[in-house]
Specification:
- The chain has 10 helices and 12 strands.
- It is α/β, with parallel strands linked by helices.
- An 8-stranded mixed beta sheet has the order 4-1-7-8-9-10-11-12, with helices on both faces. A 4-stranded mixed beta sheet has the order 3-2-5-6.
- The chain starts with a strand and ends with a helix.
Length: about 300
Amino acid sequence: MKNKIITLGEALIDIIIESNEPKTMVAGGSVVNASISLSRLGIPVKLISEIGNDSSGNFLLDKLNSENIDISSISPSMQLQTPIALAFLDEHCNAKYSIYKNYNTEFAIPNIEIHRNDIVLYGSYYSVSPRQHQKIIDFIGYAKSRGAFIIYDPNIRNKVHDDMNHQQLIDSVERNFLLADIIKGSDEDFASIYDAKSSDEAYNKLPAKKFFIYTQGSKEVETFYKDEKTSYAVPKISPKSTIGAGDNFNAGLCYSLFQYLETGISYAEAINTKKPEIIQTAIQFSSEVCLKNENSINQSIIQRLKL
């Protein structure tokens, strides 16, 4: 039996716009970006998502196939329009999004085989939207019962949503927090969810004390583990795009944990004894992807990591 990483979330097309000019069109979505990076490093990745039976969907499927990602659980739907995101880069290379989507079909997660020590990575608004939230919670609960390791990134940057009020949003996010083994989120996420202004405030709001990772863009990464707070410096870079920064931080977490598992170190033991190395790998993934106009890591970091 070979373990795998299961990613669950939205798949879409990112059209990147700089100085009001479209620059490139790439596969997007938080877990898609992480999936591509992980697969490029030779890690088995299975993506669970929804894609329309349209030209955009065909582009996505071709891209995911070319990256050797297992998309056997995705059935393109004639009733679904593949989401499109316009990513407008500002002078600091941070993106503001206009997202166009229309999920008008019944959501269903296919039956898939889950083994002990598989990793499930999920998050974003896709994980809390009333349309599919309960089914995602049921799936994550089932994965935990099978011995999977759960990494959750809320990736919530907006308090206001048409289909739920803010308290409903908090309730749904907290259900995900309770199931996660690792909670990783940004300062923007926790400002949106809890109005938190610091990592300490965010950590104290959590309904359960898990391994908590708090990112702050170009500022230091702060972690809480067994109530011990640690800070990690982030290298100074000149970014071309920060679109994939958080997604590839998640990929770095998954990659590092997966490598330790293959040497016989359990995930819990790795977090307990190798936490600095795990976080530094995640920071490296995040920094590297910002140096290119891509949403996933490229061959330069891949060669260094393989060495």
